[in-house]
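User: Could you walk me through two proteins back to back? I'd like the raw sequence and the structure tokens for each, with a short line separating them so I can tell where one ends and the next begins.

Assistant: Of course. Protein one, sequence then structure:
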Amino acid sequence: MQIRGEEVLLPTSAVSAFPRPHWLQGRVLGTLNEPVYRSHSLRVAFEDATKLCAQEQEDAGLDILCDGAQYYEWEAPGFQLEPIFHFIPENLGGFEPYGPPGDGAKYAPFYKAAVTSKIEWKRPIFASVVTAMQGATKKPFKVAFLGPAQQSIIVDNQFYDDPIDVARDLAVAMNRELKYLVSIGLEAVQLIDVLAPYTQDMWQIEVQNAMFDGVDATKFWHVCYGSVDGQRDVFEAKTREMIPLFKESTADVIHVETCSPEFSDLEAFRDFPTDKILGLGVVDAKNSIVETPEVIADRIHARLEVVPADRLLVSPDCGLGYFSRTTAYAKLRAMGNAVEMVRAKL
């Protein structure tokens, strides 16, 4: 994989989320009608937490860092989904923040953002995250966000005749956001989307590609199977069914969970498109036991049987934000040690 013009064998990265220090509490960033930061003290605490998060990733030997989503309230048990669902809509025009409750028992505690007029980009959403990471590291990093297809099905559409138009205008708004972030120095972006295992309708790739259009950065797509408090949302991998989506996507790197037994059919990836990097999880994000480097190295070797080392990205299955900091970073260091072990034998 090319990183800053150099070929990196078995590049390593994390997915998105890491646990916050105990002294960073509450919501850090404001909504569209608030200041970017809710207080100067929160800004300092957030930027300090970002520095710790970046340093832990550097110590683990990651080649591309992630922002760690230190602005999300991972420490609020049972409510970690709320900011994921609402952070982007609350920072775009066209939404009213307090719509009806979510569908089903799992999502009922979370209100839906209501679409009441045309969705529009008004101001930068993740610029503060980019600048915090720029102050924390000199290494390349990515910023993660929920995608337009996924976002469109968890809002309450009160404006558009065609529900897919919600996703299309979300894609247009996010395209402006990503181009702005690239203009201030961001080198990689990461789409997070759980929709593809549920449905393989091609409209989701249409809006994904519209969002990525003209974005001059390395484009990651993390197919998320869910991991809130170790609980999954997806119970069938659907890898073979998703391959046509992967082939049509303009993402440079597509990442999928593979540690859990339900998702461990590596043979399905032999049809993965050869013009893309395949990211495969080698650290279990649903088990608090810290794997040894030897166990992770064995997983990497197994994945090298279906994808060559120059096209394999090594990563945890999903974000590690729901673990303790001790567990999350121990898993990350074990993964970094495992990669060095495997590289030495290649």
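----
Protein two, same layout:
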Amino acid sequence: MDKTVNQKAWFLVLPVFAIVAFSAILPLMTVVNYSMQDTFGNNQFFWNGVGWFKELLDPSTDLGERFFASLWRNLAFSGIILAIEVPLGIVVALAMPRHGWQVAACLVTMALPLLIPWNVVGTIWQIFGRPDIGLMGYALNSIGINYNYVSNEFDAWATVIVMDVWHWTSLVALLCYAGLKSIPDAYYQAAQIDGASRWAVFSAIQLPKMHRVLLIAVLLRFMDSFMIYTEPFVVTGGGPGNSTTFVSIELVKIALGQFDLGKAAALSIVYNLIIIIVCWVFYTVMTHAGADRENNPGSA
């Protein structure tokens, strides 16, 4: 007996497609249009083809040199952030209580940093790290550590990294905690009967079961860290020098500081493509690794 498929429900989705087209596709096409042209002001544009893209991808040019320098800073920052926040989030999730009123207290406490707007986070750490009135800056200098994130590149990087870890580790911890809560008690009972060690329970039960939430956490944290702008801009302004000038900050400098709309549009398109490609690689590799682990549980 053939089933009749009703396709009328798609009409309910059409308003969503219209809103997405208006809010995403049209601005994207505008950026593509700008990336192919040059302007000298007065709303006069001149065709430039792929010239901006060639200059952007050529490290010998000023634009290419600035782009690749900021790109390596971004990749280094994202790598450091993932290397710190993912293991730290797992540790925090494992330490959180599973029952009682402490669960609600921990969840609310962990969620508090996520509720603070990005510009406020930057302002908090800008004041917190000042050597004259900031608690952290004053304390570090009082114990003999010459700390000044305005003039020292290492201090600036350390401040931005610690700030991001404080702000976003809670997200990883909450995702991991949700994954841990979804594990049936039967797994732990079987491990207890077998006399499994704490490490064996973690490596054979908890970590594999957290695979999917870890995938989400890694993807979210990579995208957020790779597109970071507000926090380092408020704290360091991209300095000292260009030491914390990431791609997003470089893009704003070109678009608003220099008003080179063509260069900025080309940079934004390449920037977007890099994020999409790297996220796709992350997703593919981790999905295949999870599938292999599920198909061969004895290898975990």
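The chain has a mean pLDDT of 87.

Let me know if you want the two compared in more detail.
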